[in-house]
Every structure is written in structure tokens, then in C-alpha cells.
Write a structure and sequence with these properties.
The protein is of the alpha/beta class. It contains 12 helices and 8 strands. Strands 1-2-3-4-5-6-7-8 form an 8-stranded parallel β-barrel, surrounded by 5 helices. Helix 2 links the parallel strand 2 and strand 3. The two termini are about 20 Å apart.
Length: about 250
């Protein structure tokens, strides 16, 4: 059985003081969670959140990582830098990074490789645009993005990667794939991994749903057999809302 993983992606929100306050409120509310709990926070919040989650079941995550170990990459952070700050997970290839900051499938793959080499757990984001779904390209898009993102990893390494299926049309829009749509597409992703790496690997990989998962729809989504958790945006910015998602089965 795959252990579910619920990760909050704070995006560009919360000062260090605000982050400390939020996580300090969150920690006691999710201490009995049956899933892995991660908060992926802005880099300026690493120190505050690391302190707030110390000794708890909440893990610290980042929202991006560079593929080089060091060099002339102004404004970027390497995997080793993230590790040194106490980061354990990192979001890679989020659609906002692809849309606004020029991420490509190739650079996403380079970042995944760098993260794995450093001992970080990637949350590899894949997902289709609205017109791609309407024109029946969803399966081809998510299969391609997944396999390119994982390219160069061994089967054992792939087992530890978390894939986040985020239909781009559902991110921050309030639109949500139906439970069945999300389950079907995540099944497609798992099938692509199975064809490349074998059933043993595909059965081990955790695949989240992202795209407006919230307290109102989490139970239905998490009841689907292929869905192993969620990458949560807006609902992760308030401790009670995020708790309701994390504790969906309580």
C-alpha cells in the first residue's frame, strides 16, 4: 500500500513571521495524520519553518531547485543549498514555473536529476492545458511530461519520486477535475511508468492530484484508487483548511 502524501504549495505567500505562525498552528492539528505532510514554502521562510516543524511529522519542502551545483545563476538555489537548509522535498516543473519562467521539459528533467542526486524528493508536476484536454491530448501530454521528467533515473530512484498531476486549467481557477477524470489520468501516468520501469516501480510511485483540491472535495478525490494525495495551493495557506485536507479520513 502506498502511503498518501499531502503537500502544501504556498507559492509566493507568507513572511517568516507569518510562516512560523501558520506552521505552529498546523503542527498540533495534524500530528495524528495517516499521510505524509509537507509544506513547500518560499526560501525566505526556510529557517522559520524548519524550527517550527522540528521533531514533528511535518516536513519542509521548497518550490524550485536549480540543476547546477553552483555557478553564475543569479537568484537560483542549488539542491545542496536546499539540503543545508533542512529541505527534504522540492516542487519541480509546476505549471507556473513553465508558464512564467521558461521551464521546459528538458530543464525540469535536469532539476529532477539534481534533486535526486542530492537526496531530495522531487514533487514532479505534469498536466495539460484546457485546449489540450478539449482536443483529447491529455494522455499524450502527461505521459510525455512524466517520462521526460524521469529520464535518466533508475527504477529504484523513480520509486521515491512523487508525481503531481495538475491539470493546468484547474490551478487557481476553482475548476476541479471530476474524481473519475483525475483517477483516470493518474492511471494513465502510472501506466506510462509501468511500461518504462515495470509494475514493481509503478505500484510504488505515489501520484498526487493538484488543482484546487480543498476540504470540500478531498474525500471524493482521495477515495479513488489511483490517487495518493494532493498538492494543495490556496487551501494550504490557512491551518484549519489544510488540516481538513490532511485529516480527510478522520
Amino acid at each position: 500500500m502506498r502511503k498518501p502524501i499531502i503537500a502544501g504549495n504556498w507559492k509566493m505567500n507568507k513572511t517568516p513571521d507569518e510562516a512560523r505562525e501558520l506552521v505552529s498552528a498546523l503542527v498540533p492539528m495534524v500530528k495524528d495524520a495517516d499521510c505524509d505532510v509537507v509544506v513547500c514554502v518560499p526560501a525566505v521562510d526556510f529557517a522559520a519553518v524548519k524550527e517550527a516543524v522540528a521533531g514533528t511529522n511535518v516536513k519542509l519542502g521548497a518550490q524550485n531547485v536549480h540543476f547546477a551545483k553552483s555557478g553564475a545563476y543569479t537568484g537560483e538555489l542549488s539542491a545542496d543549498m536546499l539540503k543545508a537548509c533542512g529541505v527534504e522535498y522540492v516542487v519541480i516543473g509546476h505549471s507556473e514555473r513553465r508558464q512564467y519562467f521558461g521551464e521546459t521539459d528538458k530543464t525540469v528533467n535536469q532539476r529532477v536529476l539534481a534533486a535526486v542526486e542530492a537526496g531530495l524528493i522531487p514533487l514532479l508536476c505534469v498536466g495539460e492545458l484546457k485546449d489540450e484536454r478539449e482536443n483529447s491530448y491529455t494522455n499524450a501530454i502527461v505521459e510525455y511530461q512524466t517520462l521526460i521528467g524521469l529520464n535518466g533515473l533508475s527504477g529504484d530512484q523513480v520509486k521515491d519520486v512523487v508525481v503531481a498531476y495538475e491539470p493546468v486549467w484547474a490551478i487557481g481557477t476553482g475548476l476541479v477535475a471530476t474524481d473519475e477524470q483525475a483517477n483516470e489520468t493518474i492511471g494513465v501516468i502510472r501506466g506510462a511508468i509501468e511500461r518504462k520501469y515495470g509494475k514493481n516501480v509503478s505500484d510504488a510511485v505515489r501520484i498526487q492530484y493538484g488543482g484546487s483540491m480543498n476540504p470540500g472535495n478531498v474525500k471524493g478525490l482521495m477515495s479513488q484508487p489511483e490517487i495518493d494525495g494532493g498538492l494543495i495551493g490556496g487551501a494550504s495557506l490557512k491551518a484549519p483548511d489544510f488540516t481538513a485536507v490532511v485529516m480527510y479520513n478522520k
